[in-house]
Amino acid sequence: MTAITVLGTGRMGTALAIRLSETGHQVTVWNRDQSRTTAAAAAGAKVATTPAEAVSAADLVITMLTDAHAVEAVLFGAALPGDGAVAALRSGTVLVQMSTIGPVETTGVADRLPDGVHFVDAPVGGSVDAVAAGTLAILAGGTPEALRRAEPVLHHLGTVRRCGAAGVASSVKLMLNTAMLTALGALHDTLLTAEGLGIDRAVAADLLTTGPLGGALRRATSTTADFPVALAIKDLHLTHDEPAGRPVVAATLRLLEALPDHTADLSTLISPAPRHPADPA
């Protein structure tokens, strides 16, 4: 049994805590809003009141937070004076950073950890349904020793793809998200084109299933995946605010930003009825 802490119990963090509890680990969770720890606690997780308390006895710590600002605040206490998690990490602990943040922010975290603490950069592909099934695609970067220590736990969550040093996995995640989101933008335009040409929407979707937009269509019609529009916008900004010359990314970003409900699943980009999955927290 491994003592695991999950910092952040939003949709994905809650799903991770439940999955790890169900696979026999001793799990502790922390979230700024303690009311969002209810589902994890019901699955057997212990609830800590501060990040430092949560990690003090952990063998492995997972961060699954909204953005780089949240990662900074929770780990280093920027918004939680005296309660940052890093100060309480024991030598030998593995910190697995699963939040989707930029590679510069990722390496910045790794460079500031105390001696003896191992770091794994491990953003994931897949949503809450993949966590529950243990089928996440986990992009993992770090030293061979850090990866060796983390992989027995990560294998309970999905398949690990080693990507090299810390920071590389975060870059790969942004590339993959860019491909998925721009494909959804293309699907949006393709379905509008079909409508304009008088093609029945169901017929169009059936024909597109086996074409180049098949993957985007499967994601857009999923009833179990959960990726709010706001997070999709955040991820595209992590790439679009870098070098110029990506008009498709810029157009997709404008499409997403124009959607009226940024809390809905990103499938709302092609659906007239926004879907709001039940929040497991």
Automatic annotation (TrEMBL):
Source organism superkingdom: Bacteria
Record's keyword annotation contains Oxidoreductase: yes
Cleavable signal peptide: none
Family: Belongs to the HIBADH-related family.
Keywords: Oxidoreductase
Ranges for domain 6-phosphogluconate dehydrogenase NADP-binding: 4-159
Pfam families: NAD_binding_2
Keyword Nucleotide-binding: no
Name the UniProt record assigns to this protein: 6-phosphogluconate dehydrogenase NADP-binding domain-containing protein
InterPro entries given in the database record: 6-PGluconate_DH-like_C_sf, 6PGDH_NADP-bd, HIBADH-related, HIBADH-related_NP60_sf, NAD(P)-bd_dom_sf
Organism lineage string: Bacteria, Bacillati, Actinomycetota, Actinomycetes, Micromonosporales
